[in-house]
């Protein structure tokens, strides 16, 4: 698939250069121009909604910001359209940052409602400002001049629109195939997983919101100088919904889906506007009804959009002419990432000191006390509802403490981590897996593991995003992928690193999560029910792996229900019931403890 897309870029570039030179009707040029303009906006929505998992209905307002900024500067002040582009991007960036800092904190249905609110606000702002001509808008916008050529017609604007679209597609692809790109893709897998790998999810959401807004602004700039006039109508909520529809129809999770969806809907809308009034005997926006029905059918039958079907069909047809797609390859000579020094064996690295967690009047964890030492496997067991998962979430920063303290060994001393967020805790050397596997199913095994190395490379988010777009991060990117490959070899999954993570068996997925956690370079590994759902042989292989890691100096704290697995693996056991510790000691001692036999084990010999 990657090979097919690479060839597609060159095919598209050739078409861009040749199409306006062909004796095609001007109407075709106009349609192609609008497809390009819409695709630039839809591309931002692919990044924001399809990849990042955040629905926005307000992108048309950012198109308006780009259009009006350039239109006003060029008509009222006589500035160059290129200065208008710069001004529009700066204004859009500032507005998107301010809006994003508020809106991106929302979740569930509140997020799309929030995008509708600010989209409508900007729309009415355009229509009520005297300097922007109110609802009549601005006319007499000058044409763009490029290298001495005046782009004063649709045919002359064609190449500029489509070259910008192609560059935007390449830029977004470069971004998504990088360290910050993996962090962006991890957002859709859930904030808990991303934060546990060290991703600042709030900051990353704002960054992609600003990128999507700036793409919309560029489209608005092109639109203003193509039409040579602007008014608020194209920047309202209806158009915002249509942009989102284009991304969804094409394939919201696929970069090229933005272009496909824009083309399909633009061409379909043109045909429906000609056919429906004749069939119904009346004029009106009847195509909106058809679009609504199509969206319902699409969500029922093809939620990933049309692009995946087209890609599979094209791949089958051209398979004989295309070289084999070998996936992401690790280049030889990658620099080895720095690793932290492991503490001496038997050093206390985790200390739970009267840890307490209350939810209102419910005490889920009641003054828990235990320790984990370096090179030790400690099991945390207990019946359902005992508070194990809550205790686990307190250690990993998912939940804040209500009382007591949790200390972790870092830089030669125990330091309090009880109220640190997950992304700060993983920096200190705590890696984790999840009770319910949290992988990005459509990403390769190698890329899933590389997410764990997110904090192993340093750099500011904004500058790193720019570096990724320009492909100036190849060395560090290769080092991160090499580290992911090394961890896959460590756990015995290197032969599957190019496979999609979602295609692996459950046992392999759990091992994959351990490899991802190891990529964080932890001194303590926290595993939440790692043997759940595994067959007997898979449990044996998992136990062998964990013993191997312990022998390498790794400390492990695991929550588990399988008593045979725990008894044969752990060096030390802590037993909980109703949030309280009822027993602690060697597995053989705990197995015979009266309180444990009564509460949980049921008299296991």
Automatic annotation (TrEMBL):
Source organism, top-level taxon: Bacteria
Keyword check for ATP-binding: yes
Alphabetical list of Pfam families matching this protein: ABC_tran, BCA_ABC_TP_C, BPD_transp_2
GO molecular function, one term: ATP binding
Main location: membrane
InterPro entries: AAA+_ATPase (IPR003593), ABC_AA/LPS_Transport (IPR051120), ABC_transp_permease (IPR001851), ABC_transporter-like_ATP-bd (IPR003439), BCA_ABC_TP_C (IPR032823), LivM-like (IPR043428), P-loop_NTPase (IPR027417)
UniProt cross-references to SUPFAM superfamilies, sorted A to Z: P-loop containing nucleoside triphosphate hydrolases
Keyword Nucleotide-binding: yes
PROSITE patterns for the chain: ABC_TRANSPORTER_2 (PS50893)
Membrane topology: Multi-pass membrane protein
Entry keyword set: ATP-binding, Cell membrane, Membrane, Nucleotide-binding, Transmembrane, Transmembrane helix, Transport
Subcellular location: Cell membrane
Residues passing through the membrane, by range: 12-29, 35-53, 85-103, 110-129, 157-176, 206-224, 244-268, 275-299
Domain ABC transporter intervals: 350-603
Protein name as catalogued: Branched-chain amino acid ABC transporter ATP-binding protein/permease
Organism lineage string: Bacteria, Pseudomonadati, Pseudomonadota, Betaproteobacteria, Burkholderiales
């Amino acid at each position: 698939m990657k090979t097919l897309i690479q060839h597609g870029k060159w095919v598209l570039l050739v078409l861009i250069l040749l199409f306006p030179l062909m004796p095609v009707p001007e109407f075709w040029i106009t349609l192609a121009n609008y497809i390009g303009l819409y695709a630039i906006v839809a591309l931002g929505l692919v990044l924001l909604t399809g990849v990042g998992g955040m629905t926005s209905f307000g992108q048309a307002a950012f198109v308006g910001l780009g259009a009006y900024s350039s239109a006003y500067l060029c008509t009222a002040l006589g500035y160059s359209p290129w200065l208008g582009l710069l001004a529009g991007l700066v204004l859009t960036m500032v507005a998107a940052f301010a809006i994003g800092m508020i809106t991106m904190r929302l979740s569930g249905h509140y997020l799309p409602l929030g995008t509708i609110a600010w989209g409508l606000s900007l729309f009415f702002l355009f229509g009520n400002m005297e300097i922007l001509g109110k609802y009549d808008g601005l006319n007499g916008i000058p044409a763009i001049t490029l290298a001495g050529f005046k782009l004063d017609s649709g045919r002359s604007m064609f190449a500029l629109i489509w070259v910008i679209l192609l560059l935007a597609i390449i830029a977004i692809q470069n971004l998504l195939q990088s360290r910050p790109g993996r962090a962006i893709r991890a957002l859709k897998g859930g904030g808990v997983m991303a934060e546990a790998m060290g991703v600042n999810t709030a900051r990353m959401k704002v960054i992609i919101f600003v990128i999507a807004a700036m793409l919309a602004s560029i489209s608005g700039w092109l639109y203003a100088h193509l039409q040579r006039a602007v008014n608020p109508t194209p920047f309202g909520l209806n158009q915002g919904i249509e942009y989102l529809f284009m991304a969804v129809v094409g394939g919201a999770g696929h970069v090229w889906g933005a272009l496909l969806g824009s083309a399909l809907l633009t061409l379909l809308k043109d045909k429906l506007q000609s056919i429906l009034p004749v069939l119904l005997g009346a004029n009106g926006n009847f195509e909106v009804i058809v679009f609504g029905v199509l969206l319902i059918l699409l969500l029922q039958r093809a939620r990933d959009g049309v692009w995946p079907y087209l890609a599979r069909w094209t791949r089958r047809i051209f398979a004989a002419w295309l070289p084999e797609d070998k996936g992401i390859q690790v280049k030889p000579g990658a620099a080895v990432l720095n690793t932290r020094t492991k503490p001496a064996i038997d050093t206390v690295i985790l200390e739970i000191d009267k840890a307490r967690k209350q939810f209102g009047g419910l005490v889920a964890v009641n003054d828990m006390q235990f320790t984990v030492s370096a090179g030790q496997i400690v099991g945390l067991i207990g019946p359902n509802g005992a508070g194990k998962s809550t205790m686990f979430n307190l250690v990993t920063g998912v939940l804040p403490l209500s009382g007591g303290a949790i200390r972790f060994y870092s830089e030669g001393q125990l330091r309090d981590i009880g109220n640190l967020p997950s992304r700060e805790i993983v920096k200190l050397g705590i890696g984790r897996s999840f009770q319910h596997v949290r992988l990005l199913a459509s990403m390769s095994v190698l890329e899933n593991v590389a997410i764990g190395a997110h904090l192993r490379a340093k750099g500011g988010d904004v500058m790193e995003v720019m570096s990724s777009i320009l492909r100036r991060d190849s060395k560090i990117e290769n080092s991160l992928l090499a580290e992911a490959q090394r961890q896959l070899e460590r756990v015995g999954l290197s032969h599957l690193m190019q496979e999609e993570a979602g295609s692996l068996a459950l046992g392999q997925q759990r091992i994959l999560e351990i490899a991802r956690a190891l990529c964080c370079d932890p001194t303590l590994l926290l595993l939440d029910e790692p043997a759940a759902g595994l067959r007997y042989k898979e449990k044996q292989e998992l136990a062998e792996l964990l013993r191997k890691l312990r022998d390498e100096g790794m400390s492990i704290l695991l929550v588990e229900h399988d008593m045979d697995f725990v008894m044969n693996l752990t060096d030390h056991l802590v037993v909980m019931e109703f949030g309280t510790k009822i027993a602690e000691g060697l597995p053989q001692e705990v197995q015979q403890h009266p309180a444990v036999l009564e509460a949980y084990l049921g008299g296991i010999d």
